[in-house]
Task: inverse folding
């Protein structure tokens, strides 16, 4: 690090720029001159010269993040240019400077390594707790280094320069063994350090990425020299490391570091050398002793992974699990676990296999478990961890022997295997797959995901599942799922195990595999992981197969099979599965076919020391082992047995076939004793003796003994065990055991010899343990005639049943206990299942908004005619009974204000969301606006109280009532609310506002609607047709209206029921805002309440009509089926309406049914006249009439009211029609009507009536104002059609009302028959005539002569026309043609919306909002969370949701592509309706993919809006505190 000497202004400038931590303006200034070539070179050299100074400033900086970004901003422009980088490298020693600067930087935060030998270690490592590492301060320098190494010419210089390589390895060794974990054995750690993030990031960025960069230049044969250099200096650094930490042959216990970058450099360059450079592996491998040392630490990591997953490190806190996960996680795995396993594979292929296998079991601490004895003492492991550690050891061996990632697979095969493994765990979205497939961390090397191969492999292995909905409302993204043939042939459990971060993913993959086999009918039961054929090994690694053919492994396999067969404790199905997998691997990879005569004379000498004669698995499988000497604790059952009387050969041989006699002798004279540890020590000693001179030998301490805990070993004695089994016989017995049948195995080749010639039988490829055993036995038979013969022999000897164990009484007790437990468990399962199915059937009815016939268990007993009262079940106390005045029952209801109806427009074309300045939406043509205008106009010319009965309100801010159909006692509900209030759990609703969830179905609700104590008797009476004449009925209706207050529940005596009815009425009122209930000119007038109450009924009927699609053609019961609460709602409304008396003089009923005598009196009075009858809304009149009648209403009176109102409606239709005709047409109709006037059916012919209306209206100045729009063709058919369309809305509302009040289904019909069907259903059609001569007029039933009534009604208009001729036509009720409510139509491409709105200024505050949003109902642009547009503590979105949707708002957040719903005081994120090409959301637009509208999702959103089910379907609600 030389002193800086400045010679020119540029150097001075740069110095101060660095000193002041790269001010942005200076950076821009210096970069702006780069186009000048000379300046560029001079500036680059100056930059390099100041590199060390930059590093020092960066280390001291407080704003290191900003500074880092600015440094890289400059350096990336200088070093990305290969020519410039080469020049600076040559002239200014750029590489030396960079490596030295990095080295110096790290030297400032080194600490002594505690790995291995804590006291005497000379090794230093970086301290991951330092800010330098924690904050990634080093990254700009490392990223520059990676950047220049991407240039071939520069990398070549680096790889040729021995001095640089030495320095670099020195740098890498700082990270070797960092972040050491020590296993806590007593107390839980007090403080969980999170330094491991820093450690993993540092190894990835500072070591692995430069490594991948260098590797990318070692792709061809000519680059062999570079690899030799790297490997040489890497090994030197490793040797120094081993010396520094005083490492001999045993790793220190209870320590692990996941960071071995030197090992990984060595491994990856070896792999590259073999794969791309055709180097001979043995020429660059070190000696055996070095390989033995090299394998220790990576093996330690594998064992520790297993310990961590066995919860042995639980006292170290969660962070140790975090490390284990990060080590295998997709961004790290190919710089961490993959090189480690590859290095172990290389070591295994070159070391003595017995030594390697015994090392593995010793590292995994399960040596003591591998004994034939039924009891053993494990000195290093608690018994509860033994099983999972044994599973870990076997699984590791399977991984080691099966993986071919670096041993011969091509890049495409690797990509395919990775992808299949990820897809088998779970269906994946495209983006998560891209993220999960490991890529080389250096972006400039090798596979780039998203490249051609990624897409082509994906389409080969997976099917795309388009985004769908689940009925619960959760939205699926577009997913990829494995094709059937992938499950069939490519599912590789080994790869899945290697790549799972969470253990549950392995289970998930197996569950999916099981489901596939069941579905495709390949295997019904619980399958075992399938055995998958491997890619052939690269010749350089052939030595790996020796592991499968070594006596030590065979002894372990034999022992484990024996233990499993004898039911020793601590063995699981997983152990057996792995044992069989290893046997199968051995059979698949047997060394050259053995000759059957191998066992003649030559074979005999080999078996003195060991259990098996040779090392080939194929022949060892059939070798019988008779006696084994075992060391057991004195308490073990084996000790009691006497050794057999004679251990000589003849006593034993009799049972065997004679050709085995020669073997028997050596084998049985002494029983076998087997100690893994001893074998390993011996081998290690041999190798060391070979490698080192005797002098050196004395110095090496035996490090192994000092860790066995003193006094922990119990007294062991030796026992001799009679075994008499071979691996083959154990397998066959296992088959019997697994199948639960004696002699279940029958050699398949006895029936079909072809089996031996074509052993690949599909039926063996999927199945459970039995299938695996069958497959192995078949493979063994195929490989050797002798095996085949012995299998047959074993099968012939009928195996005696396994002798039942004598059960001691203590054991019997535990068994009984177990059985009892099992039974209890089964009972519990049964109960749970029953409960779940009940809940499920309940949920189906509750969730499904559409299904008309959902049956709810709490069915109100309507079917039984003779039951006098409706019976309700209370879902809180569970009692059933009628609703009484003292203890009323109520329906759980949700009241919400709704403006959905007001959004209907009279055009079928839905409005588009504006995406240009020209497209604007004006709310003039909405239903709400038109109704508003009409009411205001009426109030100008007519008496206020009469106006308020001529229309309905509630198009905006109307109250919609819906129920889940469950009932509860109102007193139970009150106590339930109390308990909710005291419950401190955070609920998604506000109990103070009366909100709760239904105790049974958890549906959101906020009130209880009392059930009127009704009897069901009258229903049967209602059905009978009365024979009274029309006049009598009209009179009866009038009389009934006069008896006010004769409500069955007398109001004077306050009962519980009437109190509840009042309180629910208050709830209904307070649901909507004041502005939506106050329309009268004199505030607080009772007329307001009257109007509000019948309008609630109107809103609910109209909304039900909308939910049915706007007409009643589909018929059937009410959409909500049993969940309709209209009947109860009418009772509540009726009770309150009858509190308001209608002055009999103004009772509209009189005007409809009696011609008035004196017509001039009203002209004298000063006040405004009443609203003419022809201006009144007939549906509103209907509700007023019905709700002011005493309840329950008789069907005959109901029909009477309808008939009377229909005459008025028909007259309105004629009047509207007459205004639309041209003057000539009017004359023509008038005359033709007059001609037919006196015919018998005159009152039932529209021509006559129309003529009469025209002549009556001509008396006023009605037709004088300029021509209005005309009907095009005025032929009788079009007139008839017009009249029917005009009357239909009223007929629909009336039919729904009749259906709710009196039961009875609605008939279904074609659209063109709707009028006739509804008319006959309502009793308007006297007798159903044939359709061709049917006219709407035949439904008329005039209570008094038609012409008198019409004249009277028309005269009111005529007198109004005299005063205000301009308004007459405007106020005539026009034919209403409303389309169903729709959300705005969105453009296909999200970019269209984004480009227009994300820079758009807000109309209120004229700024560009930080979070722009747009309302999908009306298209208003708002600032989300913007304080700029806040009014009285309400932010703009909340305010808009109240004004536009009476508390419900649907907003698209422009910068996030997500939709949020505001409902009252709560809000929720709904999801996105824009998805990318792979069907995925891109929330917050992070991935920046083009997004397209998903029409199905938008339809669902609209459906939820119209059906008011946001509260039920979306689950994650939170309060917004008016801050949105």
Result:
């Amino acid at each position: 690090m030389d002193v800086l000497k400045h010679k020119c202004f540029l150097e001075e400038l740069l110095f101060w720029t660095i000193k002041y931590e790269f001010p942005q303006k200076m950076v821009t200034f210096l970069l702006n001159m780069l186009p000048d070539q000379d300046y560029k070179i001079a500036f680059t050299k100056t930059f390099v010269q100041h590199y060390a100074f930059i590093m020092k400033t960066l280390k001291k900086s407080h704003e290191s993040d900003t500074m880092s970004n600015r440094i890289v901003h400059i350096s990336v422009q200088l070093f990305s240019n290969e020519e410039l980088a080469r020049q600076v490298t040559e002239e200014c020693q750029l590489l030396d400077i960079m490596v030295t600067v990095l080295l110096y930087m790290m030297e400032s935060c080194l600490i002594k390594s505690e790995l291995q030998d804590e006291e005497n270690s000379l090794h230093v490592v970086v301290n991951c707790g330092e800010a330098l590492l924690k904050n990634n301060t080093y990254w700009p320098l490392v990223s520059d280094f990676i950047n220049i190494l991407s240039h071939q010419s520069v990398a070549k210089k680096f790889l040729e320069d021995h001095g640089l390589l030495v320095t670099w390895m020195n740098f890498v060794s700082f990270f070797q063994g960092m972040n050491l974990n020590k296993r806590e054995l007593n107390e839980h750690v007090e403080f969980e350090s999170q330094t491991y993030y820093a450690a993993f990031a540092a190894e990835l960025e500072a070591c692995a990425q430069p490594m991948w960069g260098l590797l990318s230049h070692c792709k061809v044969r000519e680059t062999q020299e570079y690899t030799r250099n790297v490997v040489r200096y890497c090994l030197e650094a490793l040797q120094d490391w081993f010396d520094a930490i005083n490492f001999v042959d045993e790793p220190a216990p209870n320590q692990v570091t996941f960071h071995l970058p030197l090992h990984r450099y060595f491994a990856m360059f070896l792999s590259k050398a073999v794969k791309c450079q055709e180097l001979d592996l043995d020429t660059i491998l070190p000696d055996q002793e070095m390989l033995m040392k090299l394998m220790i630490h990576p093996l330690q990591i594998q064992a520790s992974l297993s310990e961590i997953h066995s919860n042995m490190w639980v006292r170290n806190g969660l962070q140790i699990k975090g490390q284990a996960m990060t080590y295998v996680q997709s961004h790290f795995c190919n710089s961490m676990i993959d090189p480690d396993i590859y290095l172990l594979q290389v070591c295994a292929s070159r070391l003595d296999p017995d030594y390697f296998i015994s090392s593995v079991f010793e590292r995994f601490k399960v040596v003591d478990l591998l004994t034939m004895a039924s009891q053993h003492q494990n000195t290093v492991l608690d018994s509860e961890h033994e099983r999972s550690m044994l599973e870990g050891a076997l699984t590791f061996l399977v991984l080691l022997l099966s993986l071919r990632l670096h041993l011969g697979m091509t890049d495409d095969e690797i990509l395919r295997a990775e992808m299949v493994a990820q897809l088998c765990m779970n269906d994946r979205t495209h983006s998560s797959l891209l993220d999960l497939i490991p890529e080389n961390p250096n972006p400039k090397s090798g596979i780039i995901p998203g490249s051609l191969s990624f897409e082509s492999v994906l389409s080969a292995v997976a099917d795309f599942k388009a985004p769908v909905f689940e009925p619960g409302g959760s939205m699926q993204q577009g997913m990829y799922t494995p094709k059937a043939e992938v499950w069939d042939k490519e599912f590789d459990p080994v790869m899945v195990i290697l790549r799972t971060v969470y253990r549950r993913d392995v289970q998930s993959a197996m569950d999916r595999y099981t489901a596939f086999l069941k579905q495709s009918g390949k295997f019904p039961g619980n399958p075992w992981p399938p055995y998958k054929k491997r890619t052939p090994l690269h010749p350089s690694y052939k030595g790996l197969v020796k592991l499968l053919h070594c006596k030590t492994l065979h002894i372990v396999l034999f022992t484990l099979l024996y233990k499993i067969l004898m039911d020793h404790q601590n063995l699981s199905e997983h152990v057996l599965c792995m044992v069989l997998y290893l046997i199968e691997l051995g059979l698949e990879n047997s060394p050259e076919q053995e000759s059957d005569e191998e066992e003649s004379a030559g074979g005999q000498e080999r078996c003195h020391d060991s259990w098996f004669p040779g090392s080939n698995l194929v022949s060892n499988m059939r070798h019988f082992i008779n006696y084994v000497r075992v060391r057991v604790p004195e308490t073990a059952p084996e000790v009691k047995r006497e050794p057999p009387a004679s251990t000589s050969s003849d006593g034993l041989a009799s049972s065997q076939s004679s050709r085995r006699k020669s073997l028997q002798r050596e084998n049985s004279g002494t029983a076998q004793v087997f100690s893994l540890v001893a074998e390993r020590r011996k081998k290690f000693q041999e190798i060391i003796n070979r490698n080192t001179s005797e002098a050196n030998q004395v110095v090496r301490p035996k490090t192994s003994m000092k860790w066995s805990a003193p006094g922990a070993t119990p007294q062991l004695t030796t026992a001799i065990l009679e075994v008499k089994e071979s691996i083959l016989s154990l397998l066959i017995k296992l088959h019997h055991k697994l199948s639960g049948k004696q002699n279940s195995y029958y050699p398949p080749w006895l029936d079909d010899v072809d089996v031996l010639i074509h052993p690949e039988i599909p039926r063996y490829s999927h199945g459970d343990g039995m299938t695996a055993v069958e497959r192995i036995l078949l493979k063994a038979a195929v490989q050797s005639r002798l095996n085949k013969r012995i299998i047959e022999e074993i099968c012939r000897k009928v195996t005696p049943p396994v002798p039942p164990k004598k059960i001691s009484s203590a054991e019997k007790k535990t068994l009984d206990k177990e059985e009892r437990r099992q039974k209890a468990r089964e009972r519990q399962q049964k109960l749970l299942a029953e409960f779940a199915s009940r809940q499920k059937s309940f949920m189906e009815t509750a969730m499904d908004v559409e299904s008309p016939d959902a049956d709810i268990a709490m069915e109100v007993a309507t079917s039984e005619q003779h039951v006098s009262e409706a019976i309700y079940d209370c879902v809180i106390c569970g009692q059933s009974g009628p609703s009484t005045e003292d203890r009323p029952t109520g329906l759980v209801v949700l009241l919400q204000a709704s403006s959905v109806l007001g959004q209907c427009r009279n055009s079928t074309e839905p409005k588009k969301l504006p995406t240009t300045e020209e497209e604007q939406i004006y709310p003039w043509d909405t239903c709400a606006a038109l109704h508003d205008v009409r009411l205001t106009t009426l109030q100008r010319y007519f008496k206020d109280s009469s106006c308020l009965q001529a229309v309905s309100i509630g198009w905006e801010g109307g109250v919609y009532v819906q129920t889940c159909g469950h009932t509860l006692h109102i007193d139970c509900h009150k106590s339930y609310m109390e308990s909710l209030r005291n419950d401190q759990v955070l609920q998604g609703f506000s109990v103070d506002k009366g909100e709760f969830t239904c105790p049974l179905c958890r549906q959101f609700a906020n009130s209880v609607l009392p059930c009127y104590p009704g009897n069901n008797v009258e229903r049967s009476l209602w059905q009978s047709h009365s024979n009274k004449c029309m006049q009598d009925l009209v009179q009866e209706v009038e009389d009934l209206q006069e008896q006010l207050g004769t409500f069955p529940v007398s109001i004077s005596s306050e009962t519980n029921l009437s109190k509840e009815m009042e309180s629910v009425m208050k709830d209904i009122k307070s649901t909507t805002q004041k502005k939506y209930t106050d329309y009268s000119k004199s505030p607080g007038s009772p007329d307001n309440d009257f109007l509000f109450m019948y309008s609630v009924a109107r809103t609910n009927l109209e909304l039900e009509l909308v939910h049915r699609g706007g007409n009643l053609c589909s018929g059937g019961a009410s959409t909500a089926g049993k969940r309709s609460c209209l009947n109860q709602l009418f009772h509540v409304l009726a009770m309150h309406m009858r509190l308001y008396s209608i002055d009999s003089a103004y009772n509209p009923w009189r005007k409809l049914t009696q011609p008035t005598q004196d017509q001039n009196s009203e002209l004298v009075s000063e006040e405004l006249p009443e609203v003419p009858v022809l201006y009144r809304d007939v549906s509103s009149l209907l509700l007023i009439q019905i709700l002011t009648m005493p309840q329950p209403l008789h069907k005959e009176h109901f029909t009477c009211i309808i008939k009377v109102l229909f005459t008025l409606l028909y007259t309105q239709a004629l009047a509207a029609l007459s205004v639309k005709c041209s003057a000539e047409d009017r004359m023509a109709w008038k005359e033709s009507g007059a001609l037919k006037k006196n015919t018998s059916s005159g009152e039932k012919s529209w021509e006559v009536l129309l003529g009469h209306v025209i002549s009556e209206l001509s008396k006023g100045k009605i037709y004088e104002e300029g021509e209005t729009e005309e009907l095009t063709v005025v032929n009788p058919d079009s007139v008839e059609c017009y009249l029917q369309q005009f009357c239909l809305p009223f007929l629909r509302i009336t039919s729904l009302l009749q259906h709710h009040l009196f039961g009875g289904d609605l008939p279904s019909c074609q659209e063109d028959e709707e009028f006739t069907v509804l008319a006959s259903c309502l009793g308007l059609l006297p007798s159903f005539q044939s359709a061709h001569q049917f006219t709407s007029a035949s439904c008329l039933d005039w209570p008094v002569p038609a012409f008198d009534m019409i004249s009277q009604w028309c005269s009111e208009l005529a007198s109004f026309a005299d005063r205000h001729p301009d308004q007459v036509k405007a106020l005539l009720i026009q034919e209403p043609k409303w389309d169903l409510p729709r959300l705005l139509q969105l453009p296909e491409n999200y970019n269209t919306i984004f480009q227009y709105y994300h820079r758009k200024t807000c109309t209120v505050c004229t700024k560009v909002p930080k979070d722009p949003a747009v309302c999908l109902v009306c298209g208003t642009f708002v600032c989300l969370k913007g304080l700029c547009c806040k009014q009285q503590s309400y932010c703009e979105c909340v305010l808009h949701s109240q004004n536009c949707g009476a508390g419900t708002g649907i907003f698209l957040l422009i910068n996030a592509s997500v939709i949020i719903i505001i409902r009252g005081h709560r809000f929720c994120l709904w999801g996105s309706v824009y998805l990318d090409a792979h069907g995925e959301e891109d929330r917050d637009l992070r991935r920046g993919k083009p997004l397209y509208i998903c029409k199905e999702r938008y339809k669902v959103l609209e459906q939820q809006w119209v059906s008011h089910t946001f509260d039920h379907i979306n689950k994650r609600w939170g309060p917004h505190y008016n801050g949105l």
User: Anything to note?
Assistant: The chain has a mean pLDDT of 81. The longest strand covers residues 958-969.
